[in-house]
Design goal:
The chain is mainly β. The chain has strands at residues 6-11, 19-26, 30-37, 40-48, 50-57, 63-69, 73-78, 84-89, 94-99, 104-109, 114-118.
């Protein structure tokens, strides 16, 4: 597959010498992340059907990237490693993710439903 357009983003994590993250966005629908540590590269994640990206910090001030996809899910990734942290599922495609005050964030899906989320300080027990 040849991408019709490509945008490359390079992020460098401050404080970790030699660690580097590169992201390639293909046609606004396909995203590849590459994590390089001490000059060794590994593919961290590959998403198709990408709709929205939103970077934020969790309750412990750790950086997190939220990526909504056309399969009605939001993937959460720790930065800079891009290890998957979890998923949020919705009734329809999430088209909007917005940051709010006090650690809140909001998602809006195709049904018109807006949900309010907050990072937990402690893991929840079920």
């Amino acid at each position: 597959m040849i991408p019709f357009s490509q945008t490359k983003i390079r992020l460098i994590e401050a404080g970790n010498k030699g660690d580097e993250v590169a992201a390639a966005l293909y046609g606004l629908e396909e995203l590849h992340f590459l994590f390089r540590q001490n000059n060794h590269s590994k593919a961290a994640c590959h998403l198709q059907g990408l709709l929205t990206l939103c970077g934020m910090h969790d309750s412990e001030a750790k950086p997190v990237l939220l990526c909504s996809c056309n399969d009605n899910s939001i993937h959460a990734y720790d930065l800079p490693s891009f290890s998957e942290r979890g998923k949020i599922f919705s009734k329809q495609e999430v088209r909007s993710i917005q940051l709010g005050p006090g650690g809140l964030f909001f998602t809006g899906d195709g049904t018109g439903e807006v949900r309010v989320w907050k990072w937990l300080t402690q893991p929840a027990t079920i």
